[in-house]
Amino acid sequence: MQKTAHGEPVSCLKVSSKSSPASVAGAIAGMIKDGLPVEMQAVGAGAVNQAVKAIAISRGFLSPVGIEVACIPSFADIVIDGEYRTAIHFSIEAHRLHGVVDDPASETPEDDR
User: How far is CA 45 from CA 42, 59, 76, in A?
Assistant: First the structure.
């Protein structure tokens, strides 16, 4: 099992063709806001489709608070019910956007400058 730099195990979100992209996006956004690494795994075209949609939706959740996400896909060989399968593994990284204020109330209107 992979470990973070602090030694904690990395949890991997498993996405299926029946997964709700909005629910998976919420999980991605929540983990990123909590400072946790996000790893996701999908087997099959339908599951990969749902995973990619979830990543796109999570960008909409995170960009207003100044967080941009990037995705690094790779192949992973896994065993399901004794059968070897190839999964698509997504590593999702978060980056702070420069010049974005997290608290809109702290912004000074241009007229008050």
Answer: 8, 22, 15
